[in-house]
Amino acid sequence: MESDCRIPVACCRPRFLLLHALFWGLVSLRVFGAALLNEEKTTAVKPVATPCWLMEEFVVLEECVACSDFNSKTQLVCKQTGYVERINCTKSNKEEYKSCRSALMEEHLFWKFEVATMALTAFFAALVVVRQRQLDRRASEKVRRQIESI
To answer: A single Pfam family, by name (predicted)?
Structure first.
């Protein structure tokens, strides 16, 4: 006779329940802690002057190049993508640096994505084959047992 309870008995053991409570407690602390830290950070943000290339037209003086190690640590525009181009705003005649995306970097990221996608495809295809063989084995074992009982 089967029970109507859908929760396995193994899940009701005190050690198992304690581990679940501990895990979900840590997860909730992590989520609420991140939310509180995020609120504190937003209140301390200082207003930053808008770059001239957002307000007016500009001319590219130097094409997109990779930042040096020193510049990538010190300049804010280098921290965004790791590449920068030198521009000249036409109205204010100011020279500034603008973060940019390199074609070489984009190609590198594209191929990394393609390789990761292919690896995941191969992994999950193998997982499906293994699971299907396991289910086929179980089904044939069940049929064999049924035939033997006749």
So the answer is: JTB
| Dist CA 65 CA 103 (whole Å) | 10
More confident residue, 138 or 6: 138
Among all chains, which residue has been given the structure tokens 């995941």?
120
Dump pLDDT digits (tens) for 19-50.
777 888 777 777 777 667 766 555 555 566 77
Sheet containing 95-99, strands listed edge to edge, beginning at the edge strand earlier in sequence? 58-66, 83-89, 95-99
Question: What count of other Cβ atoms lies within 10 Å of the Cβ of residue 72?
Answer: 17
* Under 8 Å between Cβ of 141 and 122: no
- Estimate to the nearest angstrom the gap between the alpha carbon of 78 and the chain centroid: 22
Give CA–CA dist 135/4, Å, rounded: 26
Residue 12: Cβ-neighbour burial (10 angstroms; 0-12, 13-18, 19+):
exposed
The architecture that CATH gives domain 48-103 is 2-Layer Sandwich (3.30)
109-126 confidence digits (pLDDT tens)? 899 999 999 999 999 999
- C-alpha 103/C-alpha 107 separation (Å) is 6
| This prediction's pTM | 0.45
